[in-house]
Amino acid sequence: MGQKLKIAGWISVGALAGVLTTVSLQTVARGAMTPLPLEEIQQLSAVFGLIKTDYVEPVDDKKLITDAISGMVASLDPHSQYFDKKSFKEFREGTSGRFVGVGIEITQEDGLIKIVSPIEGSPAFRAGLKTNDLITKIDDTAVKGLSLNDAVKRMRGEPNTKVTLTIFRKDESRTFPVTITREEIKTQSVKGKVVEPGYAWIRLSQFQERTVDDFVRKVEEVYRQEPNLKGLVLDLRNDPGGLLDAAVAISAAFLPEDVTVVSTDGQLAESKATFKASPEFYLRRSGQGDPLKRLPAALKRVPLVVLVNEGSASASEIVAGALQDHKRATIMGSQTFGKGSVQTVRPLGPDTGIKLTTARYYTPSGKSIQAKGIVPDVMVDETAEGDLFASLRMREADLEKHLSSGQGEEIKDAAREKAREEARKRLEEEAKKPIAERRLPEFGTDKDFQLAQALNQLKGQTVVASKTLTERKEEPKEN
């Protein structure tokens, strides 16, 4: 990691349920504090007293204070969060890339829990849960009104215990229960293969502790099979993020040494940092060997296409933005999620803490990722028939209280509301089709339309650009 960012631990970016969120682990609190607003503190004390004396039934002091802290932090933006003893323990376990749960990436929508995507190979994946499924109940508890953190707590548990999720699948207009056995999630974050002579596909599903080593091994395997590689597709679709150092390393695998990969900026001096494509910015421990030195030199020059979509967030957006700004790759697919903020975890004691948004990410050219995402060089639909439902998909800019990009006035995209209405009508028609006809093809197969267009791009052949996708502008933030 960069020496300019004085932190103990590491930074991760992304959002998983089981769950990882964008975070930098810090042990030093801010030195200078502004004076407390005494009048407001007195009001808080008065409300505390009224609840204690006048509420219909007794309320525990600790619960009142904990809920006040939680509400104060949660009101800032969707990614700031208070950790009680249990959630802090779960968070620290989750940041290792290993956790006990069902293995789904989630967000919130209309008070329900929405599945961004099941983690490949996880219990949820094997149970057939799909992107855009809505979770309405966890065991016997309705999720309406639950915070994202509370929902995660209920889906976590001990290995080999069961949890029943009630799923509403919009495109089939049905609700059904799914019982899943929890297990330790050890996701394989790198997949890849030679798809045809001279061309390979490598997919990163997350940025974990072992992602860089796995990536290097996969590249070595590809080059053993195809020494004269003519083109490579780096697939970051539905990659929710993960470790920042892994994102910097993957970028460095393709970029010249010492060029800027990403920068951060916030109020704190240590939040103002620049990460470059050099070992000191991505090796986690001094004296650690650099796995990138094993990569073939040809990888720096091989023609490259990066595939992204609305599920590509944070660390994957950092990689796509760096490769795009340095003109090292052609970015194809649809506009990314737009998760471009840094969260710092500050312990409040031995077993509690807060995760607080402290900075924004910027691409090498200085563009903010936050609430904007990465706009592909070539928009490509998911299927040959189009990407009819892209306007319905959740992105950072759709989240309540989302942080703005900080770069200019936010623009209301009136055309998008019209597109949403049209997409809703198409969805109703699509729901009438047999299920087999509605299922999107698996990434990396011969039916993967976007992969086919990426290969056409690498070969200099005609690419079928999107018929429906347009750039989504950042929408106004309501204060």
From TrEMBL:
Biased composition (Basic and acidic residues): 469-479
SUPFAM superfamilies, sorted: ClpP/crotonase (SSF52096), PDZ domain-like (SSF50156)
A Gene Ontology term for the protein's cellular component: outer membrane-bounded periplasmic space
Domain PDZ: 88-156
Superkingdom field: Bacteria
InterPro entries: ClpP/crotonase-like_dom_sf, CtpA/B_N, PDZ, PDZ_sf, Peptidase_S41A, Tail-specific_protease
GO biological process: proteolysis; signal transduction
Keywords: Hydrolase, Protease, Serine protease
Gene3D superfamilies in the cross-refs: 2-enoyl-CoA Hydratase, Chain A, domain 1, 2.30.42.10, 3.30.750.44
A molecular function GO annotation: serine-type peptidase activity
Pfam families in UniProt: CtpB_N-like (PF22694), PDZ_2 (PF13180), Peptidase_S41 (PF03572)
Residue segments, region Disordered: 401-441, 460-479
Similarity comment: Belongs to the peptidase S41A family.
Name this protein carries in UniProt: Peptidase S41
